[in-house]
Amino acid sequence: MVKDGGGIRPLIAGNWKMNGDKASVAEILAVRDALAGPLADLPADVMIAPPATLIAGFAAALGASPVLLAGQDCHPKPDGAHTGDIAAEMLRDAGAVAVIVGHSERRADHGETSSIVSEKAMAAHRAGLTAIVCIGETKDERTAGKTVAVVCGQLKDSLPASATSENTVIAYEPVWAIGTGLTPTPDDVKDVHAAIRSDLATLLGQEGTKMRILYGGSVKPDNAAVLMAVENVDGALVGGASLKASDFLAIVRTYEAKRC
Ligand code: 13P
Questions:
Q1: What is the pLDDT of residues 9-63, one digit of tens each?
Q2: Residue 105 designated active-site
Q3: Burial level of 235, CB count in 10 A (0-12/13-18/19+)?
Q4: In b/e form, how buried is each residue of 134-145, taking b as 16+ CB within 10 angstroms?
Q5: Whose CA is closest to atom 1 on ligand 1?
Q6: Residue of 103, 105, 112, 125 marked active site
Q7: pLDDT tens, position by position, 150-167
């Protein structure tokens, strides 16, 4: 994934979660066709993270399209006796170029700690994948005024030493905004992204100033432009609205207006 001349090249990534089947290739093909036509010189990367079962088929269907594919999770190890798990190397073999790690649903449903997330991000790097590292506070943490402390704590503990601006993307996803239709105000997003940017620069130096920081949580066609215009927001991680090509493309088009 490449960056624009001066600034950071944005990324719009769709996380399909546990949704979709082989017939959903129609949505992927609609995104492919838009990027081959009306959105051909879009100044942003576009990625879909379908369930792992669909990656290989979608990769075949996409061919040479610029639409990128990602996994939604990986195991820290490259192989072995880990029934039901998928290695980063397997995702790459199937056609993925990235993998989401540390999504709040994995942290909550599977007890993943930031230390495990860091191991998974390292596994992504080992396999040559970009790690999309998710962080975000719960409603109670926000109410208690702990948002920045929680988010920056997760950031520090989830980022492996191998992280660079090329192989890692941060996704700030407030847990209470996921799937609820609620979003933080643009000012709140700005504050949290500024804190993440500042800590990235402290942790990684120059690399931290160039790393993409996505916003995720109820991004929809009607709020994407406002959210994507916030300082230090370098794209979106989209859940529900990524399942339908028309909605996802409407969000992708946010960057069309910014084309030089
Ligand atoms: P929604 O866009 O459905 O709120 O999901 C966000 C998300 O969790 C993306 O990873």
A1: 999 999 999 999 999 999 999 999 999 988 889 999 999 999 999 999 999 999 9
A2: no
A3: buried
A4: bbbbbeebbeee
A5: 239
A6: 103
A7: 999 999 999 999 999 999
Specify the 3-state DSSP secondary structure of 79: coil
Environment class of residue 194 by beta-carbon count within 10 Å: exposed (0-12), middle (13-18) or buried (19+)?
middle
Q: Tell whether ligand 1 has an atom less than 6 A from the beta carbon of residue 102.
A: no
- Dist. CA 213–CA 10, nearest whole Å: 9
pTM of the model: 0.96
d(CA 219, CA 186): 12
Structural domains in the chain, sorted by start: 11-258 (3.20.20.70)
How far CA 27 is from CA of 15, 17, 65, in Å, comes to 13, 15, 14
Query: Does 208 contact ligand 1 (Cβ within 6 A)?
Result: no
Report how far residue 258's alpha carbon sits from residue 246's, in angstroms, rounded to the nearest whole number.
20
The rounded Cα 9 to chain-centroid distance in angstroms is: 14
Q: How many angstroms separate the CA atoms of 113 and 157, rounded?
A: 9
